[in-house]
Amino acid sequence: MAKAKKPKHIAIAGNIGAGKTTLTEKLSKHYKWIPQFEDVEHNPYLNDFYEDMPRWSFNLQIYFLNSRLNQLLEIQRGNETVIQDRTIYEDAMIFAPNLHDLGLMSKRDFDNYFKFFETLRSMVQPPDLLIYLKASVPTLVGQIQKRGREYEENIRLDYLKKLNEYYNKFIEAYHEGPVLVVDVDKNNFAENEEDLGEILQKIDSMLFGLF
Questions:
Q1: 8 A C-beta contact, residue 135 and residue 12
Q2: Chain segment 151-193, per-residue pLDDT in tens
Q3: Which residue, of 15, 88, 123, 156, is most buried by count of CB atoms within 10 Å of its CB?
Q4: Given 52, 85, 183, 195, which residue is catalytic?
Q5: Which secondary-structure segment (H or E) carries 134?
Q6: 86, 71, 80: which is closest to 33 by C-alpha?
Q7: Is 85 a catalytic residue?
């Protein structure tokens, strides 16, 4: 039997509080993959954005797009398997349209941003596997409260709900490569070894053809 090609890029997508970072850590440990996290600490726009969203939304999204693109180029240049906490698609297909819908990004800025994203998208490879952490709003809220990040305290329920709608639409329309959907309402991989084992089994069969 031919040996399965070594995957280069695994990406985890999911709403705020879905458990992306936790799953990234667990999978990187299990498979010895290199984890890539979002650098929230050194983001020069985040605080300004939370103070005045319409003024800083475009700048913030461009900053995210650039840092995510750099991550992807790094992955393509390297030889190791990298697991990425959040994808380049989420910024453009979920967060930016949501900001535009809420009146926090002008149509002109959004159109400019989205065209730029489409250009970049044509230049990079999609992930070998996209893992989507699907969670209901109550589950998200519970997990956000548990981790107690100060700037997340004021996230509104309707905001999370709207992001969820965008996520589900995005996943339904995503045909760039294989997708594994994990229902976080039912699968507590953060605390339950058996639940994590279930995810590992699915990843093994999708990536390495192990049954």
A1: no
A2: 677 777 888 999 999 999 999 999 999 999 999 999 999 999 9
A3: 15
A4: 85
A5: strand 129-134
A6: 80
A7: yes
